[in-house]
Amino acid sequence: MMKSKHFPKFVIPVVILVLAVAIYFLVTALSSKETGSLDVSGTIEAQSSVIAPEIGGKVTAVNVNEGDSVTAGDILFTIDDTLLQAQRGVAEAALVLAKGAAATAQAAADAAQANFDLALAAAKAESAALRAADWATGNPQGYTLAGGSFTPADLISAAQAEVDAAAAARSEAEAALSVLLSDTANRDFIKAESDLLASRAEAQAAVDVLSKANTSANTDLKDAAQSAYDDVLTRLEDAQKAYDDLVETDTAIKILEARLDLVLAVERMQAAQSRLAALQTGENSLKVKAAQAVLNQAVSASDQAQGAVQQAQANLDLLDAQLSKLLIAAPFDGVVLGRSVEIGEVLSPAAPAFTLGQLDPLTITVYVPETEVGLLSINQMAQLSVDSYPGETFSAVIIHIADQAEFTPRNVQTAEGRKTTVFAVKLQISNPDDKLKPGMPADVSFNK
After folding, report:
1. Are residues 353 and 264 in the same domain?
2. What domain range includes position 253?
3. For the whole model, what pTM was predicted?
4. pLDDT tens digit string along 261-286?
């Protein structure tokens, strides 16, 4: 017969105690899940910016070190400005010269304006007696409108049109004569014309010479002048005979008619120009127009000089802007997280020099299990605590919840935890006293 085994008496109380502790933690866990908080952990981060120069050059001063706090506008470091300062001096001198030239040009424009005003006033005074001249002007045959039917501007316009038409007629007559003169079939008569015209000029000169010689008491001079004159007359008679022999030919008739047409066309144009000039009185006078042209030129020169001033000022402003960029300032309040520049180094544009972090506000990214993320929302408040300040909490607010799930980042310690599907939640932390620092591990508690 087998004997039953008995457990030692001290084992029973131990078993009861273990069961009691297990029941306590189970109840506590269930209670926390239903009515408690969601606790997660993460690392505090700062919004940082890499500070780099826009213009390259040699570093002449570095005013902060890693870990220093800075205020927006504080100069972090400076770059040598020797070259730009020299260029600025040149630009400033150019601006002074441009302003001087502009003042001179403006003075010339003012003088031209005064001269124009004087010319206009004088022309109006001179034209006072002529303004109504058309009222009493006789009309050509066939024209029946009374004088004074049109304004001076109308008369000038008509006169200008006649000048243009006369010029066109002259050009046409010149072209027609040129065609005839270039035709080799007409060369005999053309030569006869040329010889006769030359002999005429020679004879006129001989008459002048003979007239002067006859006033002399030198008989030999008189005889020589008379002999020369007789010879010229002989050549003139020969040229005239050669011309007369050809003048009745068809070729000669066409050329003579073309020459008469050109003479009349030239005279027509000159007459039209004279009539136009007679009408151009007062503000329409040539003197006033000339003064107006001088004034326009002076005003244009003044405008160009002012443009040169603006360009010189723009060049100076550009150099001032470039000089201001040699003083690299902090863009916001923060702390220097990193420094990679020393005095004497030559930096290229956009070369990193400092890393500047913003301490208020800070951010933290935590990872919330998929089963809990539905309890969170944007702008939801949370409490944050760090080991550096036990018993003290800091306010945080959710600013972003990831749209897609991911596996827990590898910085989670357990393999089991890394297999859990989570959502990244980013919070903004208020840090008015700058107690919190980037890199601090922190615990975040959300109220369910």
Report:
1. no
2. 132-137+150-280
3. 0.56
4. 999 999 999 999 988 887 777 777 88
